[in-house]
């Protein structure tokens, strides 16, 4: 089982016991705009997803990990590598910390750092990318901290609360 250790947290593979946590995140309408979710997910579908979470990133083209504080295996967030493309050695990356109290604490920064190291060192990726709403100041600051560069803006890309919003494409190329 994949576990990545940091100073204050660790990242681990999803377990069947994460059903309630993943269900809560996937059905939290306040974060649908960053996850591009448009309809609720049933517990049945999430249970099926978790049952197939054992699939290798090369097979599933995605790796979703639970973010956990050290000393507690209970998840506080999720971090994903998605659209994994081994031929072109790239993947997208996304992160969510569920509770407001755990945001702006450094957990997101530590988790993203662990995933970047894993992607470049273990998976031998050449680049990572992130799609970030131009109004999402916290994510913009987080990703630019690691050297992600804005390479373009998709105008009126997302329709949120009856208004179109821009989305920026950020890229980090391994040096």
From TrEMBL:
Family matches, as Pfam families: Acetyltransf_3
Name listed for the protein in its UniProt record: GNAT family N-acetyltransferase
Database matches in InterPro entries: Acyl_CoA_acyltransferase, GNAT_dom
Gene3D superfamilies: 3.40.630.30
Positions of transmembrane segments: none
Domain called N-acetyltransferase: residue spans: 9-175
């Amino acid at each position: 089982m994949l576990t990545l250790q940091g100073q204050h947290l660790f990242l681990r593979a999803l377990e069947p016991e994460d059903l309630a946590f993943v269900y809560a995140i996937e059905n939290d309408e306040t974060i649908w705009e960053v996850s591009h979710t448009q309809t609720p997910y049933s517990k049945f579908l999430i249970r099926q997803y978790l049952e197939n979470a054992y699939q290798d990133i090369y097979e599933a083209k995605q790796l979703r990990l639970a973010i956990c504080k050290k000393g507690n295996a209970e998840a506080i967030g999720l971090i994903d590598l998605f659209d994994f493309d081994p031929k072109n050695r790239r993947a997208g990356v996304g992160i969510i910390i569920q509770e407001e109290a755990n945001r702006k604490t450094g957990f997101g920064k530590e988790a993203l750092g662990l995933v970047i190291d894993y992607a470049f060192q273990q998976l031998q990726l050449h680049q990572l990318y992130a799609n970030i709403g131009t109004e999402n100041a916290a994510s913009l600051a987080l990703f630019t901290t690691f050297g992600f560069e804005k390479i373009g803006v998709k105008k009126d890309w997302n329709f949120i609360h009856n208004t179109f919003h821009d989305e920026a494409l950020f890229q980090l190329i391994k040096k």
